[in-house]
Every structure is written in structure tokens, then in C-alpha cells.
Amino acid sequence: GKVIFNGELVERENVKVDIEDRGYQFGDGIYEVIRVYNGELFTKKEHVQRLYESGEKIGIKIPYEKDVLCKKLEELVQENHLETGIIYLQISRGVSPRQHGYPTPEVEPTFVAYTKPMDRPEDLMKSGAKGLLVEDIRWLRCDIKSLNLLGNIMAKQKAAESGCFEAIQHRGETVTEGSSSNVFIVKDGILKTHPAVNLILNGITRQVILRICKHNQIPVKEESFTVDDIKTADEIFISSTTSEIMPIIQLDGSVIGNGEPGEITKKLQKLFVEEIQKECKN
Ligand code: PLP
User: Matching InterPro entries, A to Z (predicted)?
Assistant: First the structure.
């Protein structure tokens, strides 16, 4: 298939990444994952907005206007005839002789985007998945969608080794987020999720869920909660671009609620599908 490399649609085989690309050497860059349903980008504006914000936070200037970037991504999806899947895109600070400080004068960022077919995880969304509590050892700027993911991948690996789908991270007593998702709990009919501060990535799926809650009078608080709160929650789910709304029915081997996806979780899943259908008709 085709990929975008520094603005050009080219064959993947023809892309060469320099060994002194700062993304490769330092993880000095940012990325996004965008869902494609029915050949259309879901929450495209929100993802592009977050990419620009991540760029601003670390001094990487995205080399295209927002609408030009959107057009390029849509072209890529059409070129590859992608129906259901994702776009992965990343921008590194660029190529420069290895030294920690930002290059002066500035260099051109390296831009890469490609598509990948990916089904919605419908079976797991129906049955629910297992979670493992893991200490959050990451840095203090988790609000940046940085290429540096060592803390995240170590957490996910721990979860996988325990046969769990996701690592649910906590800093001391406070639950923050999953290794590649946000975390919600339901207790006595009220939803809670960690506020969008430096300790979590403000997920686009999280934002869609908050909007759905508002429009449907479902009580939700952007308030942190504890390890004890999540262990005794009525319902738990995680949210992400690829996993949408994924019920967590077991945590550290203990059953949550009655061991099945909860009523509020299921209602939100249904409303989320309606959002997809509204935005990605075709
Ligand atoms: N938190 C982290 C650490 C993530 O990596 C992700 C996405 O992969 C999310 C949250 C969820 O964000 P989104 O809903 O935008 O995919």
C-alpha cells in the first residue's frame, strides 16, 4: 500500500528513515491513531487538533495547515481503499547529528502516515476483557502524545503476561489511565474518570464519551478515584480509538459487578455506535 512520507504519497518500500532521525534515536516526536469506519475518518478534527497541541508543547511545528493535513489523510485512505481500520501518523523533530538539544537552526520534521485494516473488536466488546493494576511509572507529561512509550509498553507487557487485555495504571492510590486507554468506573449510577491534566492523555474517545453523557443526562464526574474505588466499582470500562468502549469484567483476577458488561457500559456502547454512524455514513 501507499504511505505518506514528508508530504508525498509513495510506496512503503521506497521510504528510507535516516539513522539520525530524532524520532528513531530519542523518541523525539508525536503521533496520532485515527479510526476509519466506512472509509471515513472518525473524529478527524479532534485528532488533528490534539496533534497540533502535542506539537506546540514540545516545539515541533507541524509542516502543514490543519485542512491540508486532513485532505492528505483522506487521500491516503482512498488510495489504499481502506474501509475499516486505522491511520497511524507520526512527526519527529527531524534529522540532525545526534545531540540532546533541539537542532539549531531548526530542521524539517519527518512526517509519516500509513493505513492499516483493523476490525472493530466486537466479540471482546460484548464479552468484556480482563484488566491488571500496574504502578504508573511514567513521566509527568502524559498529556503529550509522545513517541516515547517505554512506560506504557512495559505496563502492557505485564498485563499480557498475566493474560490481561489492559494494564490499569495507578500513581500510588490514584488510578490514572490504561497503557493505551482511558479508564472509567461506575459507582451508584455515577461515572468517574481522571480529569484531563498532565497525568493522562486526554483521549478523543474519552471526550466523545463525556459529550454523549452530557447529551443523554448520564451523570459523569471528571474526578480522580482510588485503587480501592476501582476494585469495588459496579462497572469498569476503558476507552480508546481502537478499542472504543471496552468493558473490564475482571480486575487482578477478581470479578467486577456480576462479571458481565454493566448496564451503563452497554448503553454507552450503543450510543457510541450511533456517533460513528452519524459521522461516518457513506
Ligand atoms: N491514554 C493513552 C496513554 C493512550 O495511548 C491512548 C490511546 O492510544 C488513550 C489514552 C486513548 O486515547 P484515544 O481515545 O484518543 O485513542
Answer: Aminotrans_IV, Aminotrans_IV_CS, Aminotransferase-like, BCAT-like_C, BCAT-like_N, Class-IV_PLP-Dep_Aminotrnsfr, D_amino_transT
